[in-house]
Each structure stands twice: as structure tokens, then as C-alpha cells.
Request: fold
Amino acid sequence: MTVTHSLGFPRIGAQRELKRALEQYWQGDITRAKLLDCGRRLRQRHWRQQADAGINYLPVGDFAWYDQVLTLSATLGNIPARHRDAGGRIDIDTLFRMARGRAPSGATTSACEMTKWFDTNYHYIVPEFEPDQRFHIAYEQLFDEVAEALALEHTVKPVLLGPLSYLWLGKSHGDPFDKLQLLPALTDAYRQLLQRLAELGAEWVQIDEPILALDLPADWRQAFEAAYNRLQQPGLKLLLATYFGALGDNLGTAVQLPVAGLHIDLVSAPEQLTPVLDRLPVHKVLSVGIVDGRNIWRTDLDQALAQLRPAAERLGERLWLAPSCSLLHVPVSLGAEAALDWEIKQWLAFAEEKLAEVSGLARALDGDASGTQQALFADSRLALESRAGSKRVHNPEVESRLAGVTATHRQRRSPFPARHRLQQEHLRLPLFPTTTIGSFPQTPAIRQARAAFKKGLLEAADYRNQMEAEIAVAVNQQEDLGLDVLVHGEAERNDMVEYFGEQLSGFAFTENGWVQSYGSRCVKPPIIYGDVSRPAAMTVDWSRYAQSLTDKPVKGMLTGPITMLCWSFVRADQPLKDTADQLALAIRDEVRDLERAGIRVVQIDEPALREGLPLRRAQWQAYLDWAVDSFRLASCGAEDATQIHTHMCYAEFNDIIDAIAQLDADVITIETSRSNMELLAAFEDFQYPNDIGPGVYDIHSPNQPEVDWMVGLLKKATQRIPHRQLWVNPDCGLKTRSWEETRPALAAMVTAARQLREAYADA
Reply:
């Protein structure tokens, strides 16, 4: 029989139960025992859902209270000194102090860095390493969960991030050193870990090495063999899992490792099946990721089955089936989507439906011709035919407009120095101008009003009045604090992508399609199913109202085309660059309408620019070319006197700094506070031509920033960037913070800016 398994399942719960429990625990509203009970109930429900879907081996270890990489750091005893308990204890609050800088118990401290997980919108907590780093088994969560699943009589497959990927994804703390020197000690700790799992009764362990889809230096590639030779445990089989791309030049390394099985991603790299089959040793299992774990479209089951049959003929029972990667990146179930348009709904598959597709393909390979099987494949065909023939997908007017775009549409009228002079004449900003990234606290009153409006319980006029009152609060607060460029606060917005998608054609939306971004932060990605256009202005009235309340400039706040692309579930029937340009044209129209309404500063956020970068460097330039072109298509319709800002956060930008400069935004704001301005190292050898705002405090931590700390960060920034190019701002939006946290933090930030103006007044 063909074996099925899952690499991971969404952990937050269909109704975001984990999110709510975490936030209640952090606020002191529930006990630790109640939080632990919530996690236990979710794990058991998710194991049952996967087993009921026909999955043979269930993942254990994919559940995390904040992030799976953070959990592994705790398991290995890799806790930075500032987060260590005086008694050496590691518990759930240790995780939260590392992730947030604060937990219900223990001292307040600075949080660890957070960055994107490969090319996804999931964020992980970056491990920190020192030259004399020691590793030992120090946290029992994984072992407890394996015992829990076994007690429920599930067939388990513990899941671990592999040692090479763990080292690669971490950072040197202090002076740089070769992280590979830590591999022997780390491998010893992994040996202990695997031995414990074997003693518990695990037969298979999934060990993820996603860096095998990257360009690896020769010494890293060579390090795999020695490490995995030391990981052998009698009676324990290792399934080496790779995903997000092709093995490419790492194929030889992967197939030769002393493991019992190899998982490959055939969704992102279908071309690698034949080379892998040709080189796979005869005793090894091949797990094929045949169902897309990152997007929500139904699988073409006929095509997938045709792709699998040659492999099944060659491998027999050594062929396993699975989703391409963990299902962490998709919502839990379509069953909760009662309001979703039926035509579109039939085109989709969430986590539960994807597991049913995996099981159905396995049964088909095993010769099952039952009525249930025939219905599954018939539904797949009907859905594909419906989508291909739907008149809702293609819009000739959008396609015609896109065909008329020329290079002129992607160029500002004048170079930055000329624009800067005009903008300064209009805006009259001081040295070290202060602003925020856009959003202000989404209070319970705001959320309740939005929910009531959506349910038809609040009239449109009443909703508008309430949102305008919230905008007035935000504007007044900013004026009182002394900020220089204000924002309207985004009270009316549910999400920086969903809000715009709701007003654009070609988008569909779910009620419960939540996906974890980091910790308790969940997003509900829109679905781009067809050609995109803007029927009407989306933000102009709110921005115009905010500007009417103040003499200071108010920024219009927009989300850029690449971020809307990356943070949505995107159609796969046309090139990504075409969809990005359709989005860019819609944003371009909005910029022009904001200008006509008197808005002279417009921010077009692109936090996902780095996220969209292909994993292999050979493919970078092609992506960067069209991504930059798309941003410029969105922004370059602006007049010279209109100051265009963009924002990027929680990703490494140093290796694409030239492309960022080519965006030609007048001001770019980036996250640098958690890294202590390390990201500005890119500017040592690159003279960035325009203005830049390095974030001076971490909004994802509830800790209050100190004035001296922010002044110090900006003085560090002046060592790399001329002080006249520097802005002062937080590192991200303030949506998730409270006003009680926001006011003193921004007051300290304004004070820091004023001190810097005095210090550099004559420079």
C-alpha cells in the first residue's frame, strides 16, 4: 500500500484558538494550565483530523507556542544569556521572553531577531550562536508531545529542523565566526535527541533540511555527510525532508546521505523527479510532495496521478505521498466557508482538503476504483474546467491597459535631488523628521464597530462617523506628541492587504481562512483568482478627512503590488509579473487620486520585496527586474513634489540593496532595531542616494524604548548614512500595540529626534 504522511499541520486552530489563548495568557487573563490545556486540545484535534483524512504517519513536533525554530532552540538549550533564568530553568515563559522580550514571569529584556522563513510570510525567531556555544537537551516539549500522541495510539513521525539548516538560519552573536565549528557539538545534541525519540517508540523521524534548496558553499555541502553519519540510531529511520525548491546541485549530497528516505517538493520543482529517481539508492523511500502546501488551488488529480505512475512502477512500496511542505502556510478547512461564492469555492483546497487529495492519490495508485474515488477525481475535473472557462477570470480591459504600459510609465519625471528640493519647499521638514509606519492601535472599539458593520448591525453612516472619530483621535495624538509627518491611523482597515483586495476586482475572501504569520499574529490572505482592477478610489476619503484636521502633512497609506502579490493566494494561470503589474496599475490610480485630494506624501509599503526573492541566485535578477518595475509602475505617476515613501521589515536586505535603490522611493523605512542597526552594514559600501528611516524601536515587543537607546542607534546610523538623509520612525506599524504602550514610546522617539537635531544642527 502507498504510504501517506503530512509534514506539518496548521497549529493555530480553525477559529484561532491558540492565538486567543496566547494573548490571554500574556495579559494575565488565564493561567498557564489553561494555556497548556488549549494546546493539548488543539494537538489532539489536529492529529484526529489528519488520521481521519487517511494519513498514515502523523507529524509530532510541528506544534509550537510561538515558532518551531524557537522551540528547537529551547530543546537544545540554546538560550541567550539575557533570557536565562537564574536557576537555569527553561519553560514556556523562556520562549516568550526570547520572542517578545517579556513573559508573565521573568525579567524584561530585548527580544531575539525575527525574520522570514525562506520565501514565505511566516516568521521565525533567529537562533543566536557564540563561539563556545554548548548544546544539551534542556526542554521536554517534543518528547512530551510524542508520548501524548503515542498514548492516543497514533502512528507518529516526529518532526525536527535538521542541524545544518538550524545553523544556517542562525546568526553569530558578537564578532562573526564560522558557524560550522559548532556542528560537532550540535550533532552530539541531536544524537541525544534522536536517542530519546527512539526510546519513546518512534520508528520514523522527519528531519527537515530546507537549505538543500539553496545555493550552498562547498564546505556546508560537505558537512552534511559527516553530520548525518553521526546521527545514526539503531532502529530509527530518518526521512530527510526538502521543500520550496529543487535540490539542483545538492542532489548528489541528498541522495547519498545515510538516511532511510528522502522527501522532495514536486510542486515547486516537478522537473526534479526523474533525476532523483535515477540516483536514489534502491533501499531508500522516496516521499513525493505532490499537493501544494503553500497555495489553495485544488490539485489536478489526473495530472498528478499521471506524474506519479512512473515513480510508482519503479519504487513500488518505497513511494510515499505527502503535501509539498508543511500545511502551516494554508488555512485549516473549507468547511467553515459558508459565505464563499460557490463557483470560486469549488476551485479551492485548504489543509483538510489537501490531505484528502493526498489520500485519494495514494488509493488511486493502489488500484482503488470505488465510487468515492471516482467522485473525487470527477470533482477535480469539474473544478478545473469551471475555473478555466469562467468569465470572471479574464478582463479584456485590464489586459489591454497592461499591454499599453511603456518604459515611460515606470520613470519619475525628475531625478531625486530635484524632487527633494521641491518636496522640502512644500513640506518644510526639520532635520531627523519623525513619522510612523502607518497603523495605530486597533482598539476593541474599532474592532467591534467593524464587526458590527460587516454583520449589518451598524449603518454605514454610523460606521463612518465612528471611524472618523478614531482618525481624529490618531491625528490629535500625533500633533500632541510633536510628530512631523502624520498618518490617519488606518482605523478602517482590517489588514494591509485584505483591505485593498476587498475594493479591487479579481479578489475573493474567506471568513475563517487564517494563516499564522508569527506568534499570535494571524492573517487572512485574500485570493487573487482573476484580472485585477480598481473600480473606485480606496483610501482617498479617509486621507482627505485626516488632512483636514491638521496643517501638518498626512501620509496616504497604500500597500505595494509585490506585497499584495506575496501576501495573497495568487492565481497560477499567468506569470506573477503580470498579476503584479495589474496590481501596480490599481495603486498608480490611487496615488494620482490622493494627489488630487491634496495629499503630498504617499507611502507604498513593500515589506515582501525580499520575501518574493527566488531561493536560487541564478533566478534573482529576473525577479528583481520585474518586481522593481512593478513598484515603479505603481509610484512613478506621482508629481515631483509628491514624496513617495516605502517600508520594508523583517528580512535581510543587504544583498539586494542595489534593487532597493532602483525603486527610487524618496524615503525608505526599514526594520533595524532588533538587529541593533546591523542591517545598515549594507550602506558601508553602497551610497544610498535617497532618504532612509532605520526603525529605532521594536513594535513587536511590549517593552518601552529608552531615549538614550534610540539616540545611540541613530548615531550608529550616521556612521554609514549622512545625517541629512535620516528619518526617525518605529520599525513597523503600531496596529498590534495599545495606546498605553504607543504614546510613551512615540514621545521618547520624538525626544530622541529633538536631541539629535541639537547635536547635528551645525553639522
DSSP finds 26 helices and 23 strands in the chain.
